[in-house]
Amino acid sequence: MPMTITEKILAKHSGRSSVQPGDNVWIDVDVLMTHDVCGPGTFGIFKREFGNDAKVWDKEKLVVIPDHYIFTKDMHANRNIQILRDFAKEQDLPYYYDVGTPRYKGVCHVAMPEEGFTRPGEVLFGTDSHTCTAGAFGEFATGIGNTDAAFVLGTGKLWVKVPETMKFVFEGKMPKYLMAKDLILAVIGKIGVDGATYRAMDFCGSTIDSMTMEDRMTLCNMVIEAGGKNGICAPDKTTTDYVRARSNKQFECFYNDDDAKYHSVHRFNVNEIEPTVAKPHSPDNKAAVSEVAGTKLDRAYIGSCTGGKISDFIAAAEIMYGEKVKIDTFIVPATMDVASEIRKTKVKDKTVMQIFEEAGCRIGDSSCAACLGGPSDTFGRLNGAEVCISTTNRNFPGRMGSKNSQVYLASPYTVAASAVKGVITNPREFFN
Amino acid sequence: MKPIISGKAFVLGNDIDTDQIIPAAHLVYKLDDPEEKKNYGRYAFSGVPIERSGLPEGNIPFINEGNWKSEYTIVIGGKNFGCGSSREHAPFALQVAGIEAVIAEGYARIFYRNSIDGAFIAPFETAHQLLKEIRTGDDLELDTTKCIVKNITQKKEYQLNPLGDIEHILRGGGIFEYARASGMLQKK
Ligand code: SF4
Predict the structure, then answer these.
(1) Does the pTM of the predicted model rise above 0.90?
(2) Which A positions 8-47 lie with beta carbon below 8 A of chain B?
(3) What is the 3-state secondary structure (H, E, C) of B85-96?
(4) What mean pLDDT is predicted for residues A128-152?
């Protein structure tokens, strides 16, 4: 029977020769990831259900990455990290990345690929909705809650309903002013925040073939903003080169059959896509940057699993080179690796870090920081009625802090250009 | 899940995301401490902008200042209820606040799944645009077997979609109980 990549991965992991959309199957899990917000609850349920002395099903397959509430005085948030620490010790976990040690990483979805935990053909569950980011590597990756994660911890298995696949075909060479973020904002704007609910979103076409892993991660990161269950990009040499440099585990690549069935097929010519924003308060509230150009801003924010990777900062630095920002501009490298790359990577004759410092940006420590608001002392948090342009992925009311704030989502190019001008600005102005 | 769930309705709009259900700053309380977990009830729906809280009028707090539980039992939502993060704290917070069921036009996947696998609340779907019909404070009676909700105040009733495959997990009390009953996991 012809199948899509997602169907093939789920068939293999459920021990069947084939599956179809709508089937409920129990699948074997290759990797489970959790963090400081959901780990404590997950471990609590695990102990309640399997006993105080229970051991996790396979400690080689569990990755625990504190990243959400790290640099805060909030006592409850810090207690959560202590719970992770105690559990890691008790279970003798090899893949725990503790705060305040050289192992500390930062945002889980960027750290996972860096550490080689994302591999083609595998099943990854995480207690975070943006676990779908890892679909960029040609694997089935999706977010789950504490109860499901506790079930996996004890059994290594979970039930899933096989999703239908929607195909998004991008053709053409990416224009210089456009980024993967613009493409995914265009897709979400077209299909809506529930346009892919329960489905897989498959990204393919010549544009995707020539994308870096980081660009593919940006696309897959935001499938959840359209309600998608998982995103997927067929693995190719770019994927396998990236993974082999970081993991020595065997993996299997799956591809869509030519006659696989899709829920729908959506085609885009990237030359017709303009730099795009999502206006407050929904990721599908799409506008071309040109339509909202001139909107007054109080703040710019560059960070998160969507827009805090090294390529995102290089893009921002290209725009900010030799410029000064007109509004408070917060820079938060997703991980420690990204933070160290910023100090080494050059744009023209200066490091990315130098460019940001000379432009007057404020640079924070690696973590989720203000992407999800967090405790009131969080770096970059919107505590009042600020208008912010951000490279993050969500702009629901209060997502970055105060219910009275307004957030525009955009690419690092657009955010950097807007920071320099103090109003929403089309990055095309910088590429003439 | 009880066969009959009755109580007052609290009505909200489309795209109620998990940050509105329980804002991120509150995700730090212990979920298994009987006293501390009450905070989840207290702050449930505290992220909903007040003009959109308790439709059609709005400006109705879900929980009165200083209280730990809500006087409402059934939430009425629109499309894409529970979108956003994977935090299980969202259906949990509703349960702690005293909510037993949500009736919406559609759900985001992870919220729906969390509601069922943890058996926190019963998530019913309907083709009716109930947020245009039911008013906050109306007395409702939800028959979870027949999948019918009666509006006692307005003397109307509506058919809801059957729960489908997940009904046995929800009635069984969640994924662990279901797996034990079906022999997948050892009995405790
Ligand atoms: S950076 Fe933002 S979206 Fe990404 S994992 Fe952290 S809080 Fe979630």
Answers:
(1) yes
(2) 24, 26, 37-38, 40-41, 44
(3) CCCCHHHHHHHH
(4) 98
